[in-house]
Amino acid sequence: MGILDGKGAIVTGAGRGIGRGHALHLAANGASVVVNDVDRGEAKGVVAEIAKNGGRASLNASDISDREGARALVAQCADEFGGVHILVNNAGNVKDRSFLKMSDDEFGDVLRVHVFGTFMCSQEAALRMKEQGSGGSIVNTVSAAHFGNFGQTNYAGSKGAIASMTYTWAVELARYGIRVNAISPSGTTRMSASAKIGGKVVDLPFLDPARNGAFVAFLCSDDADYVTGQIFGTGGERVTILEQPRYGTSMLKPGGWEVEDLQEHFKNHLGKQLEPVGLMKTPYPFYDGVKPPGA
Ligand SMILES: NC(=O)c1ccc[n+]([C@@H]2O[C@H](COP(=O)([O-])OP(=O)(O)OC[C@H]3O[C@@H](n4cnc5c(N)ncnc54)[C@H](O)[C@@H]3O)[C@@H](O)[C@H]2O)c1
Looking at the structure, do residues 216 and 295 belong to the same domain, yes or no? Predict the structure, then answer.
């Protein structure tokens, strides 16, 4: 008996890297898995690997950033596996460039896969889950880059949008028994090979990308039927809960703040508690002012 027995699952971008690990773990825990990837050859290899391990999987090579592709993917899972109970939105791409040089195409190509792909696959899957009356689990994929990372306007913006969509869908879909969470994974992959922090290439130690999969399998099981609207850092040896944005310390003034009041009070109150900026969460670096070159 597996904790996902009888469930039909979809993993997008599962031909390699982190998605491959999700697909292997879901199948090993009893789910029947549609292995999606535009790279058909890689997806075929993962389907074969699951079959060799005694699991059940089928291949789908749809482009998930296209409405027809998303619809066909979800229909395939329903037709072949008797329903759609799990969707893991994992497919992703990067086209890094500093903000002032980024083209519309570089911006749009990344938003299309991450934001539109996650939106369309989730909408198609959630409609099925609602129609089935079965409930379900959607797992989105964000990244610490959404805290802000040099050269990643398109990618960071996409992951921030996915985080906000996760919170929103958790609120909207709970009434149908559909849970929506996200992970911020880590692993050594084709994508991580090009990763830069603060604009610099970093030589990170090897991290098995498949190590994110066990948590995804648990999150999609009925053992986690009370977990929704959450984001977890996964990979390596840890699972971390991501603290969500919330209003912090306030300044209050009866009647509200005028510009003169802010000139007088801001710097000594909120101005002393500015938040760290960017992925590395270094202490706030601009207390001496943000100045043009040579100033
Ligand atoms: N590797 C990391 O450390 C890391 C960190 C944070 C977040 N992530 C996220 O994890 C996810 C997986 O990343 P990865 O590192 O395994 O990358 P990867 O490049 O190794 O794998 C991504 C897969 O998605 C597929 N894909 C891309 N566009 C597609 C589309 N339109 N339709 C279907 N498939 C498509 C690719 O063919 C590829 O096989 C991504 O969402 C990424 O942003 C990765």
Answer: no
Residue 198 domain boundaries: 8-241
Residue 2 placed within a domain: no
Q: Which of 219, 241, 263 is the last residue of a domain?
A: 241
Do residues 14 and 61 lie in contact, with contact meaning Cβ atoms separated by under 8 Å? no
Closest CA to 125 of 160, 89, 161: 89
Domains in the chain: how many in total? 2
Q: Per the domain annotation, does 3 fall within a domain? A: no
For residue 49, give both structure tokens.
């690997």
| pLDDT at residue 96, as a whole number | 96
231-233/240-241 β-pairing: antiparallel
193, pLDDT greater than 90: no
Q: Which two tokens stand for residue 293?
A: 């070159």
Contacts of 71 (CB under 8 A, 6+ apart): 124
Percent of the chain topping pLDDT 70: 99
Ligand 1 near 113 CB (within 6 A): yes
Q: Which of 12, 18, 142 gets mutated to test ligand 1 (max ligand atoms within 8 A of its CB)?
A: 18
- Predicted structure pTM score: 0.96
Do residues 182 and 234 both lie within one domain?
A: yes
Active site (catalytic) residues: 155
Our answer on whether the CB atom of 13 is closer than 6 Å to any ligand 1 atom is yes
Confirm if 17 and 209 have CB atoms less than 8 A apart.
yes
Q: Are residues 24 and 67 in the same domain?
A: yes
> How is residue 6 annotated by DSSP?
T
- Cα(112)–Cα(236) distance, integer angstroms: 29
101 and 172 part of one domain: yes
Count Cβ atoms below 10 Å from residue 281 Cβ, excluding itself. 12
